[in-house]
Structures are given as structure tokens and as C-alpha cells.
Amino acid sequence: MKKRGLMIGITLALVVLLLLPAGCIPVDRTVVGEVVQFRLVGQQEGIMVEGRGEVTVVPDIAVVNLGVQAQAITVAEAQAQATSAMENVMVVLREHGVEERDIQTTGFTIWQQTRWESARQEEQVTGYRVSNNVQVKIRQVDEAGIVLDAVVAAAGDHIRVQGIYFQIDDPSVHLEQARSIAVQDARTKAGQLAQLAGVELGSPTYISETSSSPVIFRSVETVSPGAVPAPTTPIEPGETTITATVEIIYAID
Predict the structure, then answer these.
(1) CATH class held by domain 61-167
(2) 201-219: per-residue pLDDT in tens?
(3) Residue among 246, 208, 205, 209 nearest 45 (CA)
(4) Quick check: 147 and 138 in contact, CB under 8 A?
(5) Which CATH class is domain 44-59+169-253?
(6) Contact indicator for 153, 225 with CB cutoff of 8 Å
(7) Are 200 and 253 in contact (CB under 8 A)?
């Protein structure tokens, strides 16, 4: 009877093993007398830690979203006004060293303007509005305010400024630095844990990394060309923090 119970136990163990997904969970098997023992080994054995590295830098590119807008009785008139205003903007941007590759059209629209006529119970067309928007990269951040003022003056009342944000042209160098700090941080934490646990820290068996280089948004207030002249529009890029986070599993020797 005991022998039959032993055989049933072995059979059940083998069934459980076969039902496990192949390759997902390592299995350590030992034989004691006639009994086969199975010990499931976790995939992430060792010391798991997270390291974090941060590098603070000043953005070196200002990206401005601006455009021109004109309204007239006919589409042709509105488009002619918008085209003239945008051409003036392009001239000013080139004069301030902005390259063609740093100017990108982001939108061009024509709207029909209408008004509700109660007497006739119908919409009446009153004119047309044309809008042309571009995104401009200013690589001399300290001159962003000067460029904006020149653009506003060139386009007159047709100018529209939707906003400005700052970014790093090439964050790779700063990411490498942040990554190095993160790995060292993880190593320090793992070493401390190993010492506290009374074990020897081995080599890394798993490494995962995430990083971020946030964009800084700023609002821009411009003065209408017809208003009293004002000082150069102040543009401050501030600082941005590039972050790298690593997750490392160290073996235990």
C-alpha cells in the first residue's frame, strides 16, 4: 500500500513538471533512494537593485511655434496678406541665421467666416481667414528674444505666437554620464546589501535601463507692433535634468 502511494506521488510530480511552460522555469532534480525530488528555481536569483543617475544641463535649442493669420472678403485677398506676412517672417529668420532645415511648416488652413441671418434664417458668408503656421528652431538660445521681436515687427498684426519650448540638441553625451552614475549607484547598493547579508557579490546577470530627457515649455508674451516699444522679449531656457535608471541583478557567489 505504501509502495502504491509512493508511485502515485512520483506520477503527480511528473505531471506537474510537464504542465509547466517549457523553458520558463528552471528545474533542479535530485534523486534520494527511489524518490525523485524537484526544486523549482526562480528566474531572478541574486540581489536585485535599482540605480539612478541625473545630469543637469542648460538647453541649447529654443523651438518656437509661430504663424501668420489674415482675414479678408475673398480667399485670394486673405491668402495674399498671409503670404506677404510669412515672406517677411522668412526674411527676418534668415537674417538672424536660422537655416532652412530648422524651419518646418506645421499647418496651413483656410476658414470660411459666416454670420447667422435671422431674417433669412440662413448663414451668410462674411469673409475668409487664412492661417500659415511654422515651427522654428533657434540654435542660439540667447538670441531667441531678439529673433521673436524681429518676427513680430516683420509680420505686424498678422503674427501669431503659439508658444516656445527648449530641448537638448544631442542628449547622448549627457545620457552616457547619467547612465554611468546610475550603474555606480546600483553597484553601491548591491555591495551594501551583500555585506549586510554576509554574502559575496557576483557579476551582473541582468541589466535593464530607462532614460528621459524632458522638454521645457515656456509661455511667450509679445507686444503688438502698434503698441509702445518694449525691451527685448525675455527668454530664459532654465535647466533640464536628464535621467537614467538601471535595474541590475547581481549573482551571489
Answers:
(1) alpha beta
(2) 999 999 999 887 666 555 5
(3) 205
(4) yes
(5) alpha beta
(6) yes
(7) yes
pTM for the whole thing? 0.65
CB 67 within 8 A of CB 133: yes
Cell (9 digits) for 100:
532652412
Spatial distance between the Cα atoms of 49 and 47, rounded to a whole number of angstroms: 7
**Cα 7 to Cα 3: distance, rounded to the nearest angstrom:** 6
Residue 232 phi/psi, 5-degree rounding, is -55, 135
Domain ranges of the chain: 2-43, 44-59+169-253, 61-167
**H-only helix segments in 32-143:** 75-95
Q: Helix and strand tally (H, E) in the chain? A: 4, 10
Residue 18 grid cell: 510537464
User: How far apart, in whole angstroms, are the C-alpha atoms of residue 148 and residue 196?
Assistant: 59
Q: How many residues does the chain have?
A: 253
Q: Which residues contact 102 (CB under 8 A, 6 or more apart)?
A: 136, 137, 138, 139
Listed in sequence order, the residues at least 6 apart from 89 whose beta carbon sits closer than 8 Å to its beta carbon are 66, 68, 134, 151, 154, 155, 159
- Write out the three cell numbers for 174: 549627457
Q: Where are the alpha helices (DSSP H) in 142-200?
A: 144-155, 172-197
> Could you tell me the CA-to-CA distances from 130 to 72, 127, 151, 152, 218 in Å, in that order?
9, 10, 18, 18, 26
Residues 89-132 have pLDDT tens digits of 999 999 999 999 999 999 999 999 888 887 777 788 889 999 99
- Calculate the alpha carbon distances from 146 to 138, 165, 219 in Å: 11, 16, 16
Place of cell 543617475: 53
